[in-house]
Amino acid sequence: MAPSQPTAADIFHYRYHHGTNLGSIFVLERWLSGSMYPSGTVGDSELDVVKASLKTSNLAATRTKWESHWSTALTDADLSYLTKTAHCNLIRLPIGWFTLGPSFCTSTAFAGDPAQVYIHAWTAVKNLIKRCHDTGIGVLIDMHALPGGANDQIHSGTSSGKAELWGNKFNLDLARKCLVFIAQEAKNMPGVAGLQLCNEAGWNANGMYDWYDSVIHGINAVNSTVPIYISDGWDFSRAIVWVQGKNTGTNPIIIDTHKYYTFSASDTSQSAQQIIGRIPHELSELDGKDGSVFDRGAVSTLVGEYSCVLAESTWGKSGDRATLTKQFGQAQSQRWQGRCSGCTFWTYKMDWMDGGDWGFKHSTDTGAVKPPHSLTMSAQDIKNAAVKAEGRMQALLDKAKKEHTDYWNKTSPGQHFEHKRFGEGWKLGWGDAKAFFRARADRIVPGGDGGDKLGFLDVWVRKRMVEAGQAKSKTAYGWEWEQGFRKGIADYYAAAGV
Is the peptide bond before 347 cis (omega within 30 degrees of 0)? Predict the structure, then answer.
């Protein structure tokens, strides 16, 4: 039985993601949202500010203030800007365990009155996701703040300065419960692009991968399709190897890695030109790891946070700041689009819009952050390009099959092959590329303008191989099908001019 056409959910899950974080909305950070912090607030975290507000005001007033902050986080004007100017198709949305409401706060730092502020927070999240979906933007729900903290920073929700998620059974069990709850809810929330288990886990966090296993098992039991994102814990190479071995189920597992060039001595000691020169070599850990699911397993990556910020010590060694900042952002845009499955800038909203080099809007408006070309196309341009591509399909298929057959007959004469699989794979790859590209123009997903491309290619390839009966467990010649599938996708994009 041939695999079915890609669904709307498939488009939201597997297309290339170009977008931004929406930080400091559901997990406050003082440097971004200082106006939420009453005068005299001690500490910069969500818990610090909610306690300060409860002390200087009252519960009803605090809840009203917070609910207003959530409901005005994305105005209609914001959504128009994000879709029509920035050509954004994903928002990474940081939330906390407290966002799920009082029942998830018992025996945690938010227990008592602080928890009561969040009675309607999860509803606010769902409303925001629906509004994004209706304009064609997907949302990656990022469990940014977990009980105890996946890291020791204030964006884990408290100012404890400790990462007490790891090694703490109560916190780990509660965090798992939160994530399984969200996965269950997401089954009925169109536009959820994925669920991130934690943000910026500490280096070599105790038991992190065992906990990932436990959570993935729990999520799969209630929602077998939502993509699951893991923090690489600042060890990208280790995460790659782990994910290669774990992408065997129905929920694709995707690595979230963060790229900043602002904080470490190895960055601050360099000039802007030196840092820009490093960008084309980033993510090289993927080399030899992705691109052949049949042989190596599937690995797909999102650069979940990046910015256009460089340290002042870097600028002291550099030249024209505006020109170099633009070059820095464009180098990142080019590299992320060419080497991974998507990227989300940090961040979109702050008191001090447009955010300077931390601002997605500022960096988009200056041309430092550039969307993929296909996302800038009108619906009519997409239809025209698709018609042009379709006229070349048969010739390209014949050429690809001949090249494949001739190569292997010459390289391994007399050896048994099943070249028919290559052609079958090519046809499905071509069809999938077309379906994603035309999805908005054909109103399969909302939006109208913008042509989506397959982004999370390895995990999509693996999904289609299983559906087509071409996995290694079924045939020794699935590699021919995979090569054909990938070639069909590439040929479609070349023929469509994207």
Answer: yes
Express each pLDDT in 36-91 by its tens digit.
999 999 999 999 999 999 999 999 999 999 999 999 999 999 999 999 999 999 99
Question: Would you say 216 and 190 are in contact if contact means Cβ atoms under 8 Å apart?
Answer: no
In angstroms, rounded to a whole number, what is the distance separating the alpha carbons of residues 287 and 370? 24
pLDDT at residue 1 is higher than 70: no
pLDDT in tens, 110-140: 999 999 999 999 999 999 999 999 999 999 9
pTM (predicted TM-score): 0.98
Q: How far apart are CA 50 and CA 17, in angstroms?
A: 33
pLDDT digits over 283-303, tens only?
999 999 999 999 999 999 999
DSSP β-bridge partners for residue 412: none
